Amino acid sequence: MLKPADPLVQLTNAGARRAGRWLVRGVDMAVRPGEIVTLVGPNGSGKSTTAKLALGLMAPDEGTAVRRPGLRVGYVPQELALDWTLPVTVARFMRLTGHPSDDEVEAALTSTGVAHLRQNQLRTLSGGEFQRVMLARALGRKPDLLVLDEPVQGVDYTGEIALYELIARIRDDWACGILLISHDLHVVMAATDRVVCLNGHVCCEGTPTAVAESAAYRELFGDRAASALALYEHHHDHTHLPDGRVRHADGTVTDHCHPGDGHHHAQGHPPGGTARPSEPERRGKGQGDA
Amino acid sequence: MLDDFFVRALVAGTGVALVAGPLGCFVIWRRLAYYGDTLSHAALLGVALALLLEAQITVGVFAVAILVSLALYALQSRATLATDAILGLLSHSALALGLVALAFMTWVRVDLMSFLVGDILAVSRTDIAVIYLGGAAVLAGLVVIWKPLFAATVSRELAKAEGMAPARTDIVFMVLMAIVVAIAMKIVGVLLITAMLIIPAATARRFAGGPEQMAIIAALAGVAAVIAGLFGSLQWDTPSGPSIVVAALILFVLSLAPLMRRS
To answer: Are A28 and B131 contacting, i.e. CB atoms less than 8 angstroms apart?
Structure first.
């Protein structure tokens, strides 16, 4: 029944509203097996909300969020507020939501390079160790879909590169789809198949270009970084003004910015057009990059 | 053996401590101390209702605890007040309502003190049966929901994202809390139930490397407090409920001593 290319999760024109305000709207996005999709965008742009829609933590107020039936998810949340009174070792944490065997726990911890921490208390880990343990825990579930919310935060620059290399290896070794959320607007991980830039809606999406191709960046980041990091060039047809209004490529300024106001996907529309982009065109864009 | 009131008190207290310890771990991990207080204060209203309707007191207390939990849930989702303010409102309103209701019922003679600080020396064989049946139900329930409840305590979103149902687990936990309050009231009274939940669990924290270990140590610490408290109360003729809590406190203070410290 399921074709290999069937998405693990698919958002179609999905939006979420809180207290009368749209957190994010009109998101079309899919993650397929073996694919890495990176969500970028400034603070408050709806990255985490989009991830929550994909995970089913929030129900979309419009559009749909469809997960493949029986989908096994591994989730690395942005932060884990552990109460200091909560004693939990890495080994126990690995079995938080699943029942992995000792061998599976060992394999997952080894793959993220933290097998030696098995008996340590979670509270005593450093930021980088903690991220690797979180990643190992999610991997121990043998997930179809791995959702990583800013996995490199609190990790220094070399640690960041190492983590990106690790994530790329995970995709290859464990053959899961990965949805990655990043606060960095311009530098994404090189193995990313598709970048989706959000700012209350999908501003643009596309593929990153390797840092290796840019001599200037390569000098800046070093050779090792060049293989782990990539640049993402934004192609926005509009600008978000400080007062929340939006200036479009054709010079008009509107209060809101969401699909349906006719200002997106400027190509192929009548000047100052009000037409909504047709469905095949919107879909085609996402798939073409995959 | 159960003919002796002191033995009955020991047996009953042990039963409550075995249940209160593990549940108390979740109370401190989830920062629900004030919630426990609210449920136990509301227990007095349950006593009044039970007397009015001529029902079992334990049943009345359980029912009111559930109602207060539902009221809390409803008020929280409106979000007009912070949770601690809502809890304070419910807690003391329920306590005051209970006191006023009892005063109105001039036809029943009740020993108010026994409800406030417990009357463990007056437990009957029936009380013991209720405590052990209720306690067994709570422990069984806790074992069933342990994994998802603990996962949701670490991170609710993570548990939900990975296919657990934290909302359902929370409802079960709420019912378990209501049962514990209902069976613990006779032992330590409405004012001190939270102490039986929290103090042994806090004591256990120092010695536990994992959550399951902490739950077991908390249960044992609670039992130790019951035994020490009851013997102390016999020795110095002090009120039994408060004596148990004082014994639990002493154990906690001892656990802070540097020599016994593990982490």
So the answer is: no
The residues facing A31 across adjacent strands are A9
Is residue A165 located within the same domain as residue A212?
Answer: yes
What sign does the CA torsion over B109, B113, B118, B119 have? negative
Complex ipTM > 0.95: no
State which of A236, A252, A281 marks the end of a domain.
Answer: A236
pLDDT digit string, tens, across residues B149-205: 999 999 888 999 998 999 899 889 999 999 999 888 888 888 888 999 999 999 999
Domains along the sequence of chain B with CATH? 5-260 (1.10.3470.10)
Residue A219 lies in a domain: yes
Q: How many CB atoms lie within 10 A of CB A103?
A: 8
Say whether residue B147 is in contact with chain A using an 8 A CB cutoff. yes
Determine, yes or no, domain membership for A279.
no
Question: What are the residues whose beta carbons fall under 8 Å from the beta carbon of B179, sequence distance 6 or more?
Answer: B62, B134, B137, B138
For an interface test with A, the pick among B147, B157, B203 (most A C-beta atoms closer than 10 Å) comes out as: B157
Q: Are residues A60 and A174 in the same domain?
A: yes
A285 assigned to some structural domain: no
Distance from CA of A56 to the nearest CA of B (A): 7
How many helices (DSSP H) and strands (DSSP E) are in chain B? 11, 0
Which chain A residues are within 8 Å of B21, Cβ to Cβ?
Answer: none
